[in-house]
Amino acid sequence: MTQSHSPTNPDIVVIGGGNAALCAAMTAAEAGASVLVLEAAPKAYRGGNSRHTRNFRCMHQGPLGPLVESYSEEEYLADLMKVTGGKTDEQLARLAIRTSEECLPWMQAHGVRFQPSLSGTLSLARTNAFFLGGGKSLVNAYYRTAQQLGVQVLYEAAVTHVHLAGDQVEYIDYTHMGETHRITPKSVVVASGGFQADTDWLARAWGPAAKNFLIRGTPYNRGVVLADLLDQGIAQVGDPTQCHAVAIDGRAPKFDGGIVTRLDCVPFSIVVNQNAERFYDEGEDVWPKRYAIWGRLVAAQPDQVGHVIIDAKSLDLFMPSVFPPIKAASLRELAEKMGLPADGLERTVGEFNAACGDTSGFHPTELDGVSTTGLTPPKTNWARPITQPPFYGYTLRTGVTFTYLGLKVDERAQCSVGQGPVRNLWAAGETMAGSILGQGYLAGFGMTIGTVFGRIAGKEAAAYANAH
């Protein structure tokens, strides 16, 4: 094992190369610390799941950047409480929400550019600021700014062990260019994501069904550092079966399909399982608040598959997927193309259509109360008969974005062991998001957590390093 010196005896090592890691690295560098980022991915795939993001959920008192009107702390918290079923640390949640307002101008000052909100079903112009060029542009902007601040980055640098001695990290081992290196930084920030790309670990948590899950993001988030720290007694948070899982196009690749494989058509559809039976209220709420439940719903169905059925009048109401829908002149033909029992699909659609009532109040971007009557499960909004050919279908599979089992942190983003804090260890981003997200997900909130806690971790790590 080689003892590395310049360039790799920095004050601070940041493990990971996505949004949270870069926010920590830039903040620490601005505080005068020398920083090394260890990114497991090759340069072309740098940025973790942040590459696939589109927006940042942001509290604001009045118009701010691309955001219109206002979005209060209490409304934001209420939205979060609804999707998590109250399973959140309210103190940390309020910290993330309150700090998000100052993050937006900070992001702009560090190279991020925003665009007006996308039109369509997202209805996020008030709550979510969209990145011009998406997450890849944000990541590239942050790497440029980090370089200007003197942050050093090693790509294909996989951390294998973070050695804990009592209440502090003593050294880090990592591999790079076929060699193993050991470094002894003053401070360490872990921002290396969840464990979702390790499908064996997913299967241990979920059971064999997890082998059928698709991983929406980077194949490099395998939870190596997370497992290493938990094995050494670092305080953990979250449930290994909880994750941000959405229903995505079943034709998506196993890894890295990203945002374009998401399907936004569920509110305007019926969703059936392999037996052509409906299993949940497709019209429960507007999509940014409820899209994240569908991954879990589909995971509970036979073969972990669902099928969206819509007709011609709904085709233009949602953002299109990267793959075209399956198209057929009749429901029977559609069922055959999708591998569904034709009699069953015709019966299910017939029962649904018969339960639909007055549709004159239909409004695609807000809760419209256009609902079914006497149907189980009901469809409580946007319930219009599926009658206008051609008919269209998509197959849904569970797409995991990130897992919620992670490192427990306090309001200073600091990790702990036993009864007290680890003096020189902080965590940010998806690897500690379970501290706030007990279950469920709110669109754009992962970037909020990463930005807020990345900046806090960078500030605290630098303060410790500068004092030692």
TrEMBL record:
Which cofactors does it use? FAD
What residues does the FAD-dependent oxidoreductase 2 FAD-binding domain cover? 11-438
Q: What is this protein called?
A: Tricarballylate dehydrogenase
What is the top-level taxon of the source organism?
Bacteria
Q: Which one of the record's GO molecular function terms can you name?
A: oxidoreductase activity
Keyword terms of this UniProt record: FAD, Flavoprotein, Oxidoreductase
- A Pfam family cross-referenced in the UniProt record is FAD_binding_2
Give the originating organism: Donghicola tyrosinivorans
